[in-house]
Inverse folding.
């Protein structure tokens, strides 16, 4: 069979991941408005925070009527993994000055996955830029569409949209749980800590407390 | 703390966290405990968020059969290796249908 594509692999990988994952901005927009955020607030989060798990975490806590300080801390703790991605990508991207300030916004799960999968630094940079650009554009347009569409619904619960937030977390978590039994125990332990402390602590705090489970796993 | 303030702090904080990694000295990552903690914490937080958002309401434990059914549908979709959006859509559809049939 002949070569079926003239595009280099990093561009193909980047566009595929960027467009497919970017579409789930619809789910974020819908979840945010369901939680009580305005369309503008949902869009600002997608434009400036631009990291799905933290965005879903903040809106989820708002939906639960949680304490905003705890919700903010939870969202930032989740954003902490991007710091580790940045540490790994720094060697590959080698960006300085203003370009580093721009590239930083693109350091998330999906861009890291595509960038690390490339065979050489040149392809890695192309993969990063392609994934970042296509995902950023799609994620923000679909956030607007999801938020705007949902704002016309009287009760989004009728469409089952309130389940989208936790299910998005489950889908993000799934590949890691499928690979390691230790992580399944960690997840079960963290869920148990959060549920068992919910009746006694302000909303949002039980989720932060569940990080203790990570310390327990580390100390073994 | 108003919602806009929370959003502003999350936006600024998330950007700072991304930039910190890209600009940090290389040797930070060489510390195995830093690497391990960063790998484990998101798993714990995400699992806790799933549990809390599915099985609690107004600061107490609560069981919503429709929401639980939606989460179950998502697990089935994930086991069948469905794409991300299909997983989300099947959970929402099952939750909506369960609300219709369970009242």
């Amino acid at each position: 069979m002949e070569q079926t594509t003239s595009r280099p692999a990093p561009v193909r990988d980047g566009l595929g991941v960027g467009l497919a994952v970017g579409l789930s901005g619809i789910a974020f927009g819908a979840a945010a408005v369901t939680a009580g955020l305005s369309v503008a607030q949902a869009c600002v989060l997608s434009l400036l925070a631009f990291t799905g798990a933290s965005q879903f975490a903040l809106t989820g806590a708002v939906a639960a009527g949680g304490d905003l300080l705890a919700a903010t801390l939870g969202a930032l703790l989740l954003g902490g993994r991007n710091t580790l991605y940045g540490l790994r990508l720094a060697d590959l991207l080698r960006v300085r000055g203003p370009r580093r300030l721009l590239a930083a916004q693109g350091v998330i799960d999906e861009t890291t996955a595509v960038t690390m999968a490339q065979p050489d630094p040149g392809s890695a940079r192309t993969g990063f830029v392609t994934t970042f650009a296509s995902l950023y554009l799609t994620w923000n347009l679909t956030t607007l569409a999801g938020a705007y569409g949902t704002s016309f619904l009287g009760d989004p619960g009728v469409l089952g949209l309130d389940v989208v937030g936790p299910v998005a977390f489950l889908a993000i978590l799934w590949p890691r749980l499928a690979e390691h039994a230790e992580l399944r125990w960690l997840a079960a332990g963290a869920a148990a800590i959060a549920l068992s402390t919910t009746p006694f602590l302000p909303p949002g705090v039980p989720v932060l407390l569940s990080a203790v489970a990570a310390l327990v796993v580390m100390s073994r | 703390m108003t919602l806009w303030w929370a959003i502003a702090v999350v936006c600024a904080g998330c950007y700072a966290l991304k930039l910190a990694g890209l600009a940090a000295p290389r040797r930070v990552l060489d510390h195995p405990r830093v690497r391990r903690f960063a790998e484990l914490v998101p798993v714990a937080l995400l699992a806790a968020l799933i549990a809390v958002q599915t099985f609690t309401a107004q600061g107490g434990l609560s069981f919503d059969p429709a929401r639980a059914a939606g989460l179950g549908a998502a697990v089935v979709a994930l086991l069948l290796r469905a794409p991300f959006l299909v997983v989300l859509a099947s959970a929402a559809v099952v939750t909506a249908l369960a609300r219709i049939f369970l009242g």
Summary: Chain B has three domains: 1-26, 31-60, 64-103. Chain B touches chain A through 75 residues (CB under 8 Å). The CA atoms of residues 29 and 63 of chain B lie 42 Å apart.
